[in-house]
Design goal:
single chain; about 525 residues; alpha/beta; 4 domains; six-stranded mixed beta sheet; 24 helices
């Protein structure tokens, strides 16, 4: 007779069932069970990864709602701490896009806690560093509140406390975005009554469409002159760019197709803007075999100090690398012939953008989730899927850790054929070809135990939507420790902003980090060394 009691176990439990005796296991979106991440982990995932595109199991709308509710909850209960997290993510360049941080900051300005509102308003100039960010924030803030006195004063301070030349630059470079203009915000905040500087007052008058007797900042005059049609003499646009240090956004569309104009723009074009224009620069002949500008651009892309100053995010460089190397945009019809020197420079820039990561010097198994759900959606509104982004992060670890080896898993466990000598584009292509099957996040630990492979740290890059295994990942890790006598650790790198993890929150030997958080590699390595 079959013994019904044999089905009950706290050591080995199917991933499709909750763990007996553990009230903290919850159903994930795939039908399996895992652990719910804390509100703070979910907030950090949202701030860095966003919710664009949704996931295989959850629509973009639903995923956004789930994350937004967590943000609003924290804004009302621990808002000052949330504002501090927003500032840290924004100012340290930890996220590839600023929209989630701006959304969260807008939510904090509507908090039920007055100190949170004050902290959020004070953070506006630090988070909204450009005109575009300010416009996006203005759009988001109306989703939470009206334009009270405190908010109007904070926006007014944005225009009043910056040096007038910086305000003029923003007014010329970012004239209108997201349905907002500087004219709109000046009229809302109305700082005119306290403007003492004639030049600032004249600038505000010009922004609002009025003439003032006082002279405006020089860049405004340069902008006005650049709006004249110089197609018969494009060198005149180039002269104005050099004389007034005009950004490319200050020029008419016709000027953007002139090589002489871009040659003048390049010395003061920021790194983020530069990587977006590499295809255009190639077609204009500025990026050419053995070209002087090619050498200069490659040197800038590999300048660790400039990468740090620019706050350009690794994901932006990865997308630029993949886009430029394939010779066409992910959207649109533009094509170009890639220059190998620029491809290699972008490849190096990706790794440099993470800073100097000290290796843990531990035996590390890099386990990359290549299941079907990882091929769905995109990472932080980029054209890359979580699976493709996973390959790039695995390469970073592979280049950092001398004793690391990559594997791929879904419902099966297979070798992942990537090596330190491969370009990122090759890695992404390899990952694109591997997606398959269901998800069993316990396989890395089970494979290592079965084959007696000594591992100090299992680094699992996944969406944590595990469901296909006969045992939970944390149970398999404990069994591995028992079999091998190694106090192995598990670092889970979350690749989407859902609310689940395979890491047991009660086990100090398991850690959750967010994929493409620029601080994640250093945190993982410190964890591997036992310092976290």
């Amino acid at each position: 007779m079959r013994d019904a009691l044999s089905n009950y176990s706290t050591r080995v439990t199917s991933q499709s069932e909750p763990v007996p005796g553990r009230s903290d296991t919850v159903p994930n979106d795939a039908g399996g069970y895992g652990f719910a991440v804390s509100d703070w982990t979910r907030a950090l995932r949202f701030l860095i990864l966003g919710t664009d595109g949704g996931t295989y199991y959850v629509t973009e709308r639903d995923l956004t709602k789930q994350n937004a509710e967590v943000i609003v909850k924290l804004a009302n209960t621990e808002g000052e701490r949330l504002v501090s997290l927003i500032l840290d993510v924004s100012e340290r360049g930890r996220a590839p896009r600023q929209n989630p941080t701006l959304f969260a900051l807008a939510a904090c300005t509507a908090s039920t806690d007055i100190e949170t509102r004050r902290a959020a308003l004070a953070a506006i100039p630090r988070v909204c560093r450009t005109g575009t960010m300010l416009f996006i924030f203005a759009r988001y803030v109306e989703q939470f509140r009206g334009w009270g006195r405190g908010l109007r004063a904070a926006i007014g301070d944005w225009y009043m406390n910056k040096p007038v030349d910086q305000v003029a630059y923003q007014a010329v470079k970012y004239r209108q975005r997201e349905g907002w203009s500087h004219r709109d915000l000046l009229r809302l905040s109305h700082p005119y009554g306290v403007v003492a500087e004639p030049e600032r007052k004249a600038l505000f008058s010009w922004i609002c469409g009025r003439d003032d007797a006082a002279p405006v900042p020089p860049i405004v005059n340069g902008f006005k002159l650049a709006q004249v049609d110089h197609r018969d003499e494009p060198g005149r646009w180039a002269e104005l760019v050099t004389q007034y240090e005009l950004p490319w956004e200050a020029l008419p569309d016709a000027a953007m197709n002139e090589a002489v104009v871009w040659e003048a723009l390049l010395p003061h074009t920021g790194l983020t803007a530069l990587v977006r224009q590499l295809g255009r620069l190639t077609n204009l002949g500025l990026i050419a075999p053995m070209g002087d500008q090619t050498r200069k651009i490659a040197e800038r892309l590999m300048d660790a100090d400039e990468i740090k100053r620019s706050r350009i995010h690794p994901l932006q460089l990865l997308v630029a690398h993949v886009t430029y190397a394939q010779g066409r945009g992910f959207k649109g019809a533009n094509t170009w012939t890639p220059n190998p020197k620029i491809i290699d420079a972008l490849n190096d820039a990706f790794y440099l953008s993470f800073g100097n990561v000290e290796p843990a010097n531990k035996r590390t198994l890099l386990a990359c989730d290549v299941s079907g759900s990882m091929t769905w959606g995109t990472v932080a509104n980029s054209p890359l899927t979580p699976l493709e982004a996973t390959g790039a992060l695995a390469m970073l670890a592979l280049r950092t850790e001398p004793e690391s080896f990559p594997m791929a898993f879904s419902h099966e466990f297979k070798p992942l054929p990537i090596s330190v000598g491969m370009r990122l584009t090759e890695v992404v292509q390899t990952m694109r070809a591997l997606g398959f099957g269901g998800t069993d996040c316990a396989l890395p630990m089970q494979w290592a135990a079965r084959n007696k492979v000594p591992v100090d740290t299992f680094q699992v890059l996944t969406d944590s939507e595990t469901w296909a295994g006969s045992a939970h990942p944390f149970q398999s890790l404990r069994r591995y420790r028992d079999i091998m006598g190694i106090p192995a650790r598990l670092a889970v790198v979350g690749m989407v902003s859902n609310g689940f993890t395979i890491a047991d929150p009660t086990d100090a030997g398991m850690l959750d980090v967010v994929g493409f958080d620029t601080s994640a590699p250093a945190i993982i390595n410190a964890f591997s060394r036992g310092e976290v």
